[in-house]
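Holo prediction — tetrahydrodeoxyuridine.
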Amino acid sequence: MNKKDVKKLIIASLEARNYSYSPYSEYSVGAALLCKSGRIAIGANIENASYGATVCAERTAFFKAVSEGEREFEAIAIAGGMHGEDPAEYAYPCGICRQVMREFCNTKKFKVFVVKSEDDYEEYTLEELLPKSFGPENIV
Ligand code: THU
């Protein structure tokens, strides 16, 4: 990925926070998922009065893309922070979201950007965030 594409993805993750439905935690998360087709699927966290029904931003982005035919992915950017504030910390993806990424992505190649601002972010491979993982090839 060149710098311009990284920046575009990061900005999209920050913008996606605006669509978060998070009245309970008041913590809005945005995710921007770059598909191999070139499409960027955005997602936000969607909470529920029955808290366990909440879905994270990353899974929203993945499920949108997969349900519209995308199967191959390059990278995801994630930004999270309290309502009305810029991210104070890097929002690392939760374990369930890491496992969903694992289903569709090459762990050594897929990039995860955790974002505080346009110019302040960290980059990981999925392998770094989810080493020694279980995936589709373990079943067949
Ligand atoms: N959340 C995400 O959207 N992604 C994560 O990886 C961790 C947590 C959301 C879920 C919930 O709406 C809020 O952040 C507080 O946990």
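READOUT: The mean pLDDT is 98.
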